[in-house]
Design a protein that fits this description.
Number of strands: 4
Largest sheet: 4 strands, mixed
Distance between the termini: 26 Å
Keywords: Purine biosynthesis, Transferase
Radius of gyration: 15 Å
CATH architecture: 3-Layer(aba) Sandwich
Number of helices: 4
EC number: 2.1.2.2
Pfam families: Formyl_trans_N
Order of helices and strands: HEHEHEEH
Strand order of the largest sheet: 1-2-3-4
Structural class: alpha+beta
CATH superfamily: Formyl transferase, N-terminal domain
Helix content: 40-55%
Pathway: Purine metabolism; IMP biosynthesis via de novo pathway; N(2)-formyl-N(1)-(5-phospho-D-ribosyl)glycinamide from N(1)-(5-phospho-D-ribosyl)glycinamide (10-formyl THF route): step 1/1
Shape: elongated
InterPro entries: Formyl_transf_N (IPR002376), Formyl_transf_N_sf (IPR036477)
Length: 125
């Protein structure tokens, strides 16, 4: 769907907030401007350390493992015109062990996401 048509539909339905859940595509500038401070996304690691284009899913978890980090995180942030650079709203972490793999790191991240994302979104609305 064309982003202009999407914006028209959002406005026609009087949508106040856009809640994304790990959305990977770059949001067009006119949408981020229309929903400035009203569009939120979740990232499966600490921002800004593990953010930016190409840092998603298993790529993030592999980077965390390669860095030897002792914890992993989630970041809930506002969306702006740059990948993963919107204002951070909330971060939470969980410990890692030397035995953790990118797959077990992903499981720990999913647990954090399921625990905190609904609460944070509810607090914004």
């Amino acid at each position: 769907m064309d982003a202009g048509i999407l914006l028209e539909k959002l406005r026609a339905e009087t949508i106040d907030w856009v809640i994304l859940a790990g959305f990977l595509l770059k949001i067009p500038d006119h949408l981020t401007q229309a929903y400035s401070d009203k569009m939120v996304n979740i990232h499966p690691a600490l921002l800004p350390k593990y953010g930016g284009k190409g840092m998603y899913g298993s790529f993030v978890h592999e980077a965390v493992k390669a860095a030897g980090d002792t914890e992993t995180d989630i970041t809930i942030h506002l969306v702006n015109e740059h990948y993963d650079e919107g204002r951070i709203i909330f971060q939470a972490s969980t410990p890692l062990t030397a035995d953790d793999t990118p797959d077990t790191i992903a499981e720990k991240v999913h647990a954090l996401e399921h625990r905190y994302f609904p609460e944070v979104v509810a607090s914004l609305l």
